[in-house]
């Protein structure tokens, strides 16, 4: 009901104030049906290059350019609130692919957004990531996934502007910049996913992961709307036809016992998925699970 009221309010605002599609400029809704249909509907592994040590598997819908970049910026910097709905749907699709391989069966899903600092929220007039995350959670719950957004992270200390910093400088700048609130009973049994709008070097989400792990929480993965192109083109394990990217395939079923959404419908066999599951969730260059097992046998 709340979601429906929000959508109606967005539509009324568009009608009264006049608007055009942010993608193509067509008069009408802020995102026309044609542009909305062109948005990616899957998530793919998007390891940063270099990858911060210990980073949980990061999934993104696509590259941070074109329509995805426009949507993120218009929503975040220009307060086009109606874009929260399509961005939330994109993020939900990314989360669906991530959860298909990383969720704890039957466990609740906690979406933990990277925190925004209060002065930034006041300047923008809203918290874009929190708004997008809540829309994504609504979409997931409609498919039977028990997802909720929890603001477990708070910013601490001072962080410099990162627009001109390289990966090493970003990591140093962000070190110790977040803290986690005390977890509730049951949080440690949940599937935790850190969510952000754009994955760049991975330093921000790695810092969020560190803060959560300090409280004894395990992060299953990272989900973002987009990822910058400053990374290796990683499409998953070739043994499964690219699983778990949008172009590949494991024969997945929902771990929540419901009809799988579009992100869970794949073509290839479970055998292929099982063979490469661990390798797919490792950064490029990491030793495969079979290689690790053979080395362990030799050492014993």
Automatic annotation (TrEMBL):
InterPro entries cross-referenced by the UniProt entry: ComF/GntX_DNA_util-trans, PRTase_dom
Ranges where the Phosphoribosyltransferase domain occurs: 190-231
Any single Pfam family the record assigns to this protein: Pribosyltran
Superkingdom of source: Bacteria
Record protein name field: ComF family protein
